[in-house]
Every structure is written in structure tokens, then in C-alpha cells.
Amino acid sequence: MKKLITLLLLLSVFVPTQTYAQANADSLIIRKLFEESLGNGKSYEWLRELTTKIGGRLSGSANAAKAVVWGKNLMEQQGFDRVFLQDVMVPHWVRGAKEEAYILNGKQKISVPLVALGSSVATPKKGITAEVIEVQNFLELRALGKEKCQGKIIFFNRPMDAKKINTFEAYGGAGDQRRSGANEAAKMGAVGAIVRSLSSTLNDYPHTGSMNYGTGVALIPAAAISTNAAELLSKTLKENPQTQFFFKQNCETLADEPSHNVVGEIKGSEKPDEIIVVGGHLDSWDLAQGAHDDGTGIVQSLEVLRLFKTLGIRPKHTIRVVFFMNEENGVKGGQKYAELAKQNNEKHLFALESDEGGFTPRGFGIQGAKPEQLSHIQKFSKLLTPYGLTDIDKGSGGVDITPLAPQGVVLIGFKPDAHRYFEYHHTAIDTFDKVNQRELEMGAASMAALIYLLDKDMF
Amino acid sequence: MKKLITLLLLLSVFVPTQTYAQANADSLIIRKLFEESLGNGKSYEWLRELTTKIGGRLSGSANAAKAVVWGKNLMEQQGFDRVFLQDVMVPHWVRGAKEEAYILNGKQKISVPLVALGSSVATPKKGITAEVIEVQNFLELRALGKEKCQGKIIFFNRPMDAKKINTFEAYGGAGDQRRSGANEAAKMGAVGAIVRSLSSTLNDYPHTGSMNYGTGVALIPAAAISTNAAELLSKTLKENPQTQFFFKQNCETLADEPSHNVVGEIKGSEKPDEIIVVGGHLDSWDLAQGAHDDGTGIVQSLEVLRLFKTLGIRPKHTIRVVFFMNEENGVKGGQKYAELAKQNNEKHLFALESDEGGFTPRGFGIQGAKPEQLSHIQKFSKLLTPYGLTDIDKGSGGVDITPLAPQGVVLIGFKPDAHRYFEYHHTAIDTFDKVNQRELEMGAASMAALIYLLDKDMF
Fold first, then answer.
1. pTM
2. Quick check: A417 and B417 CB within 8 A?
3. pLDDT by residue (tens digit) across B47-98?
4. Looking at the domain A26-91+255-456, which fold is it?
5. Taking CB atoms and an 8 Å cutoff, what residues of chain B touch A165?
6. B96-250 sits in which CATH class?
7. Which residues in A lie closer than 8 A to residue B386 (C-beta atoms)?
């Protein structure tokens, strides 16, 4: 044993790359990161504050402004080397009075849960009443021809595919209906578009989300109905194709508002001009508290830096936590961050985003890495597997950090378990009580462990 | 499709060992198991029935008898080759009227949530009122000496260690207090034992569970208080060591009752006399609906056989689903099953149990396998990793199948994500709504995939 230790010591002097002894030391520090997060973590109480004291915080709203103040104060309390705001103009869309919607089947009038999609225009004050055409996709819509669609409401009813293991893939496979459904429907002369909620389950909570209008087409109102309502409407239409639908929504796009990204950093001890970013987005949809989307990413990112401070880990490179503004409907914060990074000649090495919920960590998705960089990161597996981080592979980084890609930054997406995410995503039930404390804290520690390894063992 | 089947048949004739083509064919079948479970699975609706129509089903209760009938009927509806009951006598402990408990601090009387532990005796009708001695463990208790403990209530307050990654390890590390606390306290002359709930979180739900008395010591009442109550009591004792505690419980052990294991099987096409078991336990504690413990294991095990039937997978060996009775307070069903297996000269190859909740699957724990058997099973990893089953290693099989160990059966425990389990375990909130449909269905398919591989590719 003594011989082995001597050998290891010799190796650690003469071998500059990862050695057995080094891996052991890293393993101890990673263990401490997890123990501190699970034993004395702050992320859960921070999340309670953000979600239950402030709540939903759509860009441009008073709550979003409160969240900026909250975030800056919290960072300042951590004793970071620098805390600052970045100014950014953001869209300001408001929902207005609660929506109303009915299925009108002959004399039957059945109320259904409906929410306006973000950026949509309102209906006329008296609402829209029209016959409904159900389609599964844009091809089917186009094949109908304009005459059939004129004056109708188009009902996009293709579900997220439950058979897919990866719920993000299922979400991606159905997302065009929400994003572009109104635009496609307007091209065919329709007067409104309703979309089956992008949900992995059947329930009564409609999911909002962003949508875009094209140029040169009419701006028709777009809304999502709950999955249960979509099932009911589809069934009713089969029984009576003359079924009508009524909806009324009161949303409005106001003038852009000034807002902020919130940034805090611990200066690097060796290369302070080289930056590693960890972040999430501070804004959320207005329907609920923005807990899993993306309160959890915010508090986990802040916890990464707190863990470093608390455990006395002095990073070689500057570690920066960023609370991005406006991921949900514009990505203006992410764009501004990248723009300023370029303008200020900042060298960013990595950016890690947590924006897939605060569930049990499974791994990381790596985007924009050279093959040797990817395999270098994958070598961390041995140290991360004991914590369930078994999925480290190519993948998407995150919406807010994507604008950094052209600067050659390696983008990393934190990947938690994804089976529950699309039950809550963009709905009224994305609330604090849906977040499990241990799962959240495991995630924060996982992110800290990866940042620790990236900082320490750069390629 | 027909060609594919022919090809598969040819392959299965000419290539006895695992080949690339074979792995590909297996991979397709595993994919189908997951797609069927996620797309058309029955486990979730079965669980809804068991938990919300029957509910809590402690051994010997009317509900447990109902669950046996429900289970047998359900198996018969599946068109299995054989469905039968195994008779077994089980303990019959009843909680009686709801417990009452108070912290008595001078003139303050604070009501706290308390539940009797399973098998405990009642308090006298007027309850027990006594001063409280808080200890962290048995060593500390013994060091106090009998004089200090005489006539007191001993309060075991060592929490589950939040810093442990594996919550089952944390549970194991605190479990002696619940199982043997009363016995140890009685040895010291105490009149009652109260235990901090074995919970991974702070809340107001006390966790029941089994306890045992020793021989030759007084049978003193044993109960668990919620973790919040434990924190409060500990704080109060620090302020006022003369604080008293009152509790009254009305539980009783009645005469043993006849009950049953419920068994269904698909006969093996090649070796019908060699058996692979998959199961969970049908009984649950009385406080709630027994959803994660162990309704999920029951419906997942049944779903394994349904998936085989529905997809037309004819196993080589007999696959048997077993709903074990009485895991919670006696394991009489598990013991009876093993006893009958021996008596009937049945050859059991593997037994797989799901009794760690219906959460996202992570892997399997293998017990009693020879090294070459373990490494053979671990070779399935490549086929199972795409479904998140990355943790296939030595581990514990399950309480109900443990009695099969002396017959040389390889025991396998299904290992789901464990971060939430000990919030619900043995409490009033172990209810249907805590189970996520996708997570449950992923688990059922994972179990089916492993059984498929074990059956097909035996060592």
C-alpha cells in the first residue's frame, strides 16, 4: 500500500493529466458538493420565495421586475465578487381578463378550459363563434383547400406521442401546431386557431406557450385547449360535424419594456478573463408560479456558486451565474448577453443552462463541442455515475445560451428526468408543490460537480 | 413482418449465442414492450381501481380480502394459462379509533400527529402521560441507566440522513428505532416509545411501519410522530426538560386470518417446469391507499404478463405473476410461496420484485447470482440503457422473494428512482395521485424487458 501511495505521488508530480490520486481528490470534492446541497442546501427555500412570494413573472410585468430585484439582492447577499444587471428591452404581452370558451353542439353549450397563446391577438369583444375543422397537421390542412376553411376555426389535434421515451422529442414532434398553427390557418382563410395542449397527459389544464405570426397573413386569435377538452371536441365533431366553437380572449401586446438579466460572478484565481456561465431564465408564463419552468433552473444555478463559496472552492476561471430575462417569448435576454459578451471581448468557455425542470438529474447534453472535447467531458462519467448522471452525450444546450454559439462556446444542457415535465409546463399547475426538494438539490449539486470538473480540468 | 418473424425463427435455430442480429431483434421487441406500455398500458387504470376503489388493505382486513378477489378476477380476464390462490394465515392487527397525542409544556397543550406502529399494543384507555427522554440511538439510551428511564417515554429522534444519495440507505440507517425502539425502551423501564417518522422530509404526516417486541420484556406502546412534531418536541424539551407527552392509541392484535397469494402464469413453450416469478405485495398499511407501497408493484407485475400476451411473446419458461400477501407485517405470503415451491418440487430460476415505488426506472439489483450470472445479466445493459436502465448491479431482491433464496433462485429487485419514496412510504399520503402514469408505465416495460431477456437468453 505504501509503495502504491509513493507511486501515486510520483505520478501526480510527473503526470500532468488526470491520475488516480487526482480522481480520488475530485471524487471527495464532488461528494462534498452533494452533501452540502442535500444537507444544507438553499435552493429549495429560494424557490419557495420566488414562486410563492413573487409568482408568475412574464416579461414586462411588474412581477418580472420584482424578480429582478429579488435576484440581485439574493446574489449580493452571497458575497460574490461582482453582481450586476444588464439592460434589455423585452416584449410586453398581457393576457387581460380570463378567457371563455364553449363547445356549441346544437342546444348544448359546454364550457371548456382555454388559454390564449403568448403573442396572440385578442378575439373581437363579442368573441368568435364558428364551425370547427379538425386536422392533425399542416399537410392535412392545406389539402382541404381554402374554400372549406374560410370563416372556420381550425382545430389542431395531433397529440404528443406518448410512445416516445423522450418527452422532449414528443414535445418537438407536436410543437409546430402551437407555434405556427394560427399562421397556417390564416393562410387558408380561417378566423381562429385552437390547439390541443402540448401535454403528456389527459387533464383539464391548458398549456400556453409562444406562437408567431407570419408576414402578409391575417393575425387571427390563437389559443390552446386542455387535452380533455380536445378529446371532447374531437368526439363531438365526429357525432356532429356542424358543432361550433366559441372563444373570447382579451390579450394584448403593449410597448416593449425595459428589463434586465441579473449576473453574479466569482472571479477566477488563474484565468479571470475566461468565463464559465451557469444559468436559467427568470421570466415565466403568467398562468402559474413558474416553478419547474424555470424557477428551478434559477435557484440551482445560484446554488452552484453558493456551494463553491461555502466549500471554499476557488475556481481557476471566472464562474458566472446568469438569470436570463425573456426566454419564453423573445429570448431578448439571451441575445443581449451574447451581444455584450462579444462587445466586451469576453472569452466564454462553457455555458450550462438548467431549463428542463427540477427533477432527478440524469446527465448533460453537450452542444458545439469538438469530438475531443466531447470525449473529454464524457471521461467525467466515472466521477458522476454514482450520482445517477449516466447520460452525458451530444444534446441541446438551452435557449438562453444558444446565442453564444457563434462565439465558439461549448453549450451544455442540464438533463433531468423528463417524464413529469410536460404535465406542468406552461400551465396553472407549474407550482412550488410540484418540485421535490431532494430532486432539486441533487440537480444543483450535479451542475456544481460538472462546473467544478470543467473549471479544474480544462482541455 | 412475416419475413421478419421467419428470419427471427431461423436465427433462433442456428445461432445459439447472442449475435448482432439477435441483439437487433431483441432491441425491436424491447422497443415494442415500451411502446405498448406507454401507448396502451393498463397498469395505471388498474392502479386507480386498486387504490381508489379498494384502498388501504392491511393483512387480515376486509379490504385485503377484496383485493384478493380483485386480483384473481383481473388475472382471469387476461386469459393466462392458469390462475390460482395460495392459502396462507396472516396476522390481523387493527388500529382502532384514531390516535391522540399532545406535547404538554407547562400549561401549553399542543396536539401532534401520531400513529401507532404496526403490532404495537394499545395504551391504557386513559392514554399515557409521562416525561420524555430524547435519545439518538440505543447506545445513548443504555448509557442513561434504568433509573433515569423508569416511567418515562423514550423519544427516538435520529433522522434519516439527508446527505445520503441513496434514500434506502438513509432509511436503513434509522430503521432500528422503529423496529426495536420499544423493546429497547422497555428494557430500561420506560412506559412508552415514540419514534421520529422515517421520512426524508419535514412534514405533518407520521409514518407507520412494523415493530417487534422481544421476549421477556414488557410490551409498551410504540408510535411514530411526524417529523415536524419531532422537531417541535425536541425544541420544547430543550426549553423545558420537564415537558410531558400524552398519547392514546387503541390498536389490537386479533386472531390470525386466512388469506391468499394470488398467482397467474403463462406456460413456458420449451421448459414449462422452469419458472420465472415477477411480483409485488398486495397488502398495504391501513393509513392510505397503498399506492407506491405497493400498488405500483402489483400492477406493474401483472402488466409484464399482459405485455407478453398482447405482443404475442411466447416465453420458453413459465412466467408467473405473484401478488404476495402480508409483506408489511409478517411476510407470511412470501414464506408460504417458497414453502409450496419446495413442497411441489418447482424449479424457480429468477424472481423479480417491484416494491420500491412506481417511479422512473433506474435499473435492477441482483441478489444471489454467481459472478458469471451477474456479468451475464449486466451484458443486457446495452439493450436497456436507452430506457434509462443504467444501474444493473448487485443489490437486494425484495422482502417477499427472499424466502426463495435457499432454493438457489436468483433474486432481482426493480430499482426505480428513490428520491420521493420516503415522503409517502407508510403515510396517509401514499395515494394514487402521487403516482405518475408515464413513470409507472416505464417501470412495467422495464420489468418486462428484463424478464424477456432472462427468459430468452438463459445462462
1. 0.94
2. yes
3. 999 999 999 999 999 999 999 999 999 999 999 999 999 999 999 999 999 9
4. Aminopeptidase (3.40.630)
5. 34, 38, 386-388, 442
6. alpha beta
7. 165
